[in-house]
Specification:
This protein has 95 residues and is α+β, with helices and mostly antiparallel strands. The chain contains three helices and four strands, in the order E-H-E-E-H-H-E. The chain has one domain: Alpha-Beta Plaits, CATH 3.30.70.
Length: 95
């Protein structure tokens, strides 16, 4: 299993607040399943950005999780990047 950072940039022309309850419900499902390790908005960003840390077998699996997120399915996300991450220190570091 590998960690991936998923970075969302929201479309300022879209109503993210209308989709946020479904988005957060979806994130709770991912967390309960063990795939999502952390998520939240990046404060002070304009346009608004958010960060998700997921643990999946590969980048394709991380993308599939993100593809099903209501923020993507409803067109709120303007840009998305997925980058593999190797935490060597801290709570995500693998011994």
């Amino acid at each position: 299993m590998s960690f991936f950072i998923i970075n969302y940039t929201y479309d300022p022309a879209k109503d993210a607040d209308a989709v946020r309850p479904a988005h957060r419900a979806y994130l709770r499902e991912l967390f309960a399943a063990g795939s999502l390790k952390a998520a939240g908005p990046l404060l002070g960003t304009d346009p608004v950005r958010a960060l998700l840390i997921v643990e999946t077998p590969d980048e394709a699996a991380a993308a599939a999780l993100s593809d099903a997120d209501p923020m993507l399915t409803e067109g709120i996300v303007l840009e998305r990047s997925i980058i593999e991450w190797n935490p060597v220190t801290g709570v995500f570091a693998q011994a």
